[in-house]
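Thread amino acids onto this structure.
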């Protein structure tokens, strides 16, 4: 028996033209979209799309199927909307994009108290800003701006990218080299230490190194862990170094389990922005979320 979700996925691919856009529209994964499509193609017995590069071009059979189901599917979707209208009016759903660590340190503690539904998405900033422009997200917390005329950016905080170490690190030699402004020797000293990094994301280390030493690091971290909070926990009361945003280890620096070793002779600062569409139906809800961020980070 055919699954109705296969038809919904087929329609989303037909309307958006790509598997990725269909996945975003349906709030499911791209592999899930591919599975639905292949299941439907197996069920009907013929190919529904030709794959040309990243575009999905409907075949003649695909066009016939779409014309056959479009009206009936719309009637079912309208019925679903009408059935949910009363609750949706009182309980809107806000989709927010940010990095995983920012969510943990800010919004996570308040999620259960919010008077509306929330969907949190993690990802790369350019992709999240693109999804914001498309209407898939309602708010993005980002240190970057995109070139989208319909999006406004409100600066609300900043972060400094710093060199930190565990409390067991003996950094006396390094501090002496920095005091003498012998940055070449300081760089050589750092290369010989144990380093922590995160899976697939070395941007903080690369930018910090390039700004302060004039080149990119020619080494890989000794320990690769899932995220920045994992780095902080690994450094807690131990040995090793990392380059991370200061606000993500503020508490540990204050209690002495992590050391702030160096802000660099040139500080690397990021401005954090609230990014949202200029025309939004959720201004009240977004203001509440923004106030919570300001409460934690200012």
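Threaded sequence (298 positions):
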């Amino acid at each position: 028996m055919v699954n109705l979700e296969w038809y919904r996925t087929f329609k989303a691919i037909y309307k958006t033209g790509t598997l990725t856009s269909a996945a975003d529209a349906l709030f499911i994964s791209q592999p899930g979209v591919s599975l639905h499509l292949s299941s439907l193609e197996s069920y009907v017995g013929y190919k529904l799309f030709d794959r040309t590069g990243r575009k999905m071009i409907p075949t003649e059979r695909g066009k016939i199927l779409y014309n056959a189901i479009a009206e009936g599917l719309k009637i079912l979707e309208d019925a679903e909307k009408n059935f949910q209208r009363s609750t949706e009016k009182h309980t809107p759903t806000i989709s927010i994009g940010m990095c995983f660590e920012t969510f943990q340190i800010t919004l996570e503690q308040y999620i259960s108290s919010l008077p509306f539904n929330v969907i949190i998405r993690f990802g790369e900033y350019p992709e999240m800003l693109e999804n914001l422009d498309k209407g898939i997200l309602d708010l993005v917390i980002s240190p970057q701006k995109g070139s989208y005329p319909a999006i406004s950016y409100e600066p609300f905080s900043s972060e400094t990218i710093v060199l930190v170490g565990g409390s067991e690190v003996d950094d006396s030699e390094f501090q002496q080299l920095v005091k003498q402004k012998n940055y070449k020797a300081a760089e050589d000293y750092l290369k010989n230490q144990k380093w922590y990094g995160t899976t697939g994301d070395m941007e903080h280390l690369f930018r910090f190194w390039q700004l302060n030493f004039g080149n990119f690091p020619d080494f890989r971290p000794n320990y690769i862990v899932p995220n920045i909070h994992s780095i902080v926990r690994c450094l807690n009361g131990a040995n090793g170094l990392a380059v991370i945003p200061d606000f993500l280890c503020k508490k540990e620096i204050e209690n002495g389990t992590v050391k702030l070793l160096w802000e660099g002779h040139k500080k690397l600062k990021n401005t954090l922005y609230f990014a949202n569409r200029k025309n939004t139906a959720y201004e009240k809800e977004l203001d509440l979320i923004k106030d919570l961020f300001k409460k934690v980070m200012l």
